[in-house]
Specification:
With 176 residues, the protein is of the alpha+beta class. It has one domain. Strands 1, 2, 5, 6, 7, 8, 9 and 12 form an 8-stranded mixed β-sheet that branches. The radius of gyration is 16 Å and the shape is globular.
Length: 176
């Protein structure tokens, strides 16, 4: 479910998330195994644990970002995916995002494997994204829009439900 848009360059997207305390997650499991091994040896927290790939515009996300406490990252974390669209506003690229909050683990109803359970109230996570990015100082303005035929109740890929008021957060990025 798309619940936010960013208007800005790729460099602005990365800088905004970094300034807000979000980390870019590893792209695939091979990277995760190596990174997990290295951080275990050095006794560091592994905050960049990858997330599953989801598709929009016929391709996986361009970036995934997470915001978590080091000891809880395996089960609980704020995370989101962003895709660069072909749209522009005022000459600036439009990035489309989907944010959810992992609240624990559950069995995937499709295959019985363990996966993350998301908070069914995705509006709370959209609010977390808004607060954290606005506090970074990299947001020049923001607003909420209600698109025609908004998604308000749906199922996740694993069979769990989620709900929303359907609003999409729109944020214009600045170079700070």
């Amino acid at each position: 479910m798309v619940n936010f848009l960013l208007i800005g360059t790729e460099d602005q997207v990365k800088a905004t998330f970094q300034a807000a305390g979000w980390v870019q997650v590893d792209r695939d499991v091979k990277d995760a195994i190596l990174e997990g091994f290295v951080t275990s040896l050095s006794k560091q927290a592994y905050l960049t644990m990858p997330m599953s790939q989801l598709y929009l515009f016929g391709r996986p996300q361009d970036y995934g970002f997470a915001h978590a406490e080091p000891l809880k990252v395996v089960t609980t974390r704020h995370h989101l995916r962003v895709w660069k669209s072909t749209l522009t506003i005022g000459g600036a690229p439009v990035w489309v995002g989907a944010a959810t909050h992992d609240m624990g683990l559950e069995r995937d109803q499709r295959n019985g494997k363990l996966t993350h359970h998301i908070d069914p109230n995705v509006d709370d996570e959209r609010g977390f994204v808004e607060r954290s990015l606005t506090e970074s100082g990299y947001i020049s303005q923001h607003t909420h829009i209600l698109p025609p035929n908004p998604v308000q109740d749906a199922k996740t890929a694993t069979g769990g439900g989620f709900h929303s008021n359907g609003e999409v957060l729109v944020m214009w990025l600045s170079s700070n």
